[in-house]
Amino acid sequence: RHTGRTGALPTVGCGWYRLPFFVPADAEGKQLELVFDGIMWESEIYINGTKLHENRFGYASFAVNITSCVQFGKQNLLAVKATVRPDCSRWYSGAGIFRNVRLITKSTDSLSYCGIRTWIRNVTPESATLTVNISTDGDPDTFEIELCSPEGSNILSGRGLIVARGGVYTAKVEAPVLWSVERPALYTLRVKTFRGGVRTDCDSVRIGFRDCRFDADRGFFLN
Length: 223
Fold this sequence. Notes:
By secondary structure, the protein is mostly beta strands. Helices cover 0% and strands 57% of the residues.
């Protein structure tokens, strides 16, 4: 019997991962970021023996900037410590790195990790209001947005200033195709950052337009 253990998880304890990886010399001057999509449950990230990050939640992704600790033009060592304690989550029975890990090389003047956020309001079949909030690393000074329909055509574009590593752009979208269970229509929002007129980064997210409402007497309404 597993007295005191939440859900009697079959896997507890501590494990280590170690991976040698080469960083080319021409990556110097850029920003290197490791993105972990999921490590169960508590994790510690080391590069060449230096501890850079701790994470205490197994279900969410996170990013670690490793630029300061890598050796360019040389072999480097990534080490990850993963710990599952007896009283950890009962919803996942495994342990360790259970999702993808990616090494991203990008400009020092770039979008932050998860740096595109949207707010959609006033949704009707005729129009909707879209607000795009971005956060950046380094010092890009302007950004552009492009919104593509579910069919792939460009229906909206605009430009804004980046101040204190952030920017906001609001626009009206005419006749949006509403997301529904029967037709899960998704738009592609692309964001580009610039410094001195030179593009420094580009990323995109998928978004949908829909109107949700709860009524105490009649229940849930979609569109």
